[in-house]
Specification:
- The relative contact order is 0.18.
- The longest helix is centred in the C-terminal third of the chain and has 28 residues, at 366-393.
- The chain folds into 2 domains: 39-265, Type I PLP-dependent aspartate aminotransferase-like (Major domain) (Aspartate Aminotransferase, domain 2, 3-Layer(aba) Sandwich), CATH 3.40.640; 269-388, Aspartate Aminotransferase, domain 1.
- The chain has 9 helices and 14 strands.
- The strands form 4 sheets. Strands 1-9-8-7-4-2-3 form a 7-stranded mixed sheet, with helices on both faces. A 3-stranded antiparallel sheet has the order 12-13-14, covered by helices on one side.
- It is α/β, with parallel strands linked by helices and 394 residues long.
- It has helices spanning 44-61, 75-87, 100-112, 209-217, 251-266, 269-289, 316-319, 323-339, 366-393, and strands at 68-73, 93-97, 118-122, 139-143, 145-146, 151-152, 167-170, 187-191, 202-207, 231-232, 235-236, 294-296, 308-313, 356-359.
């Protein structure tokens, strides 16, 4: 039987990578014309640009008064590491690990900081641990959204309002796409290259008054590298949260971040960003509901991510394959789409089960998601036919 011809409609923007993510609609390099290049980041003009990123981000996210927000080195990873190395050790720690990055934070705390009173609450890809096991007397470290698993916490109801420990949240693929319950959080981190499509290398670190109190009253038992130091003489280094960055930032990236923030404000702020991401998830969910060969890695709709949308191939011929063969077939499907120029970088994360991962953050147009879906069916048919031919020849 002849295979169907490729679809007629193509996504206007084929960039569905989960990081760095698609630039905002209509982006051109002209948006960076105002960058303060060749200037010291400590000069008044460039420093004002850095402070503007902080203040626009704070306002867009609805961050409460009293919180500090700073730009830090090494992307979201650097921001999380600063929090872990600077704050942990005062209490026992619960870590939620339901995808690669949560496992990474667990490894850092157990094997590198070598803290003894640590509980790692694990769940396989596509699921969440029992959130009610988290002890409010202990610090908790978790990802709000599992970028590599397509799973998000549904809310923060499981975090006690009267907790004694700190809630340290890696929100890098959630901030600007999912409402964050600031009253239940104490440290929140993210990076520029996720939901607003900024350029890499810079992280954002938000601290509640409770987190600041911990910093000013607790001294870790280990030496802190210069890049991690958030206090000076026992007090918070306030300059970090006013645009005085610890390292030298890229002012080109700063201008790009400002462009993304202005775009977000212009489309309607946080409610519009959340709605755009949820619309992308709905488009995929409607297609999955009528498509027999594909399913969500997160079977529970209540915990499905609207940004890192992770899919599995559920066709019997595929599930009967050995894991190595499944991975090869899934990569072949993604490769076909890339060769056609309709979808770049949508293979599952290397540690995740074989499948596809489509970024649905706010900079992705739902029309592009809708145009992509027939191409997924087309590519699947190619791979399925090739597999059937190979099995017939054996």
């Amino acid at each position: 039987m002849a295979l169907a011809a490729p679809p007629d409609i193509r996504p206007a923007n084929p960039n569905f990578s989960s990081g760095p993510c698609a630039k905002r609609p209509g982006f051109t390099l002209d948006a960076l014309a105002g960058a303060t290049l060749g200037r010291s980041h400590r000069a008044s003009g460039p420093k004002a640009r850095l402070a503007e990123v902080i203040e626009r981000s704070r306002a867009l996210l609805g961050m409460p008064a009293g919180w500090r927000l700073g730009i830090v080195p090494a992307s979201d990873t650097g921001a999380v590491e600063m929090a872990l190395w600077s704050l942990l050790g005062a209490r026992g720690i619960d870590i939620l690990a339901f995808e690669s990055f949560g496992e990474g934070w667990a490894t850092d705390v157990v094997k590198h900081l070598k803290l003894a009173d640590v509980r790692v609450l694990r769940a396989p890809y596509g699921q969440l641990p029992d959130l009610h096991q988290v002890d409010p007397a202990r610090d908790v470290v978790f990802t709000w959204n599992g970028t590599t698993s397509g799973v998000r916490v549904p809310n923060a109801d499981w975090i006690a309002a009267d907790r004694q420990g700190l809630a340290i949240c890696d929100a890098t693929s959630a901030a600007f796409a999912m409402p964050l319950d600031w009253a239940k959080l104490d440290v929140v981190t993210w990076s520029w290259q996720k939901v607003l499509g900024g350029e890499a290398a810079h992280g954002m670190l938000a601290l509640s008054p409770r987190a600041v109190e911990r910093l000013e009253t607790y001294t870790p038992a280990w030496p802190l590298p210069k890049l991690f130091r958030l206090t000076s003489k026992g007090k918070l280094a306030e300059g970090v949260f006013k645009g005085e960055t610890i390292n030298t930032p890229s002012m080109l990236c700063v201008e790009d971040a400002l462009d993304g923030l202005r775009w977000a404000e212009g489309v309607g702020g946080l409610p519009a960003l959340v709605a755009r991401s949820e619309a992308n998830l709905k488009a995929v969910a409607d297609w999955v509901a009528r498509t027999p060969w594909v399913g969500f890695l997160a079977e529970d709709a209540a915990i499905r991510s609207c940004t890192s949308i992770c899919l599995t191939i559920v066709a019997p011929w595929f599930t009967a394959l050995a894991p190595e063969a499944q991975a090869k077939a899934a990569k072949q499907l993604a490769s076909l789409l890339e060769k056609q120029g309709v979808a770049y970088d949508i293979g599952a994360y290397r540690d995740a089960p074989p499948g596809l991962r489509i970024w649905g953050g706010a900079t992705v147009e739902t029309a592009d998601i809708a145009a992509l879906l027939p191409w997924l069916d087309w590519a699947y048919a190619q791979v399925a036919a090739e597999s059937a031919s190979a099995q017939a020849a054996e």
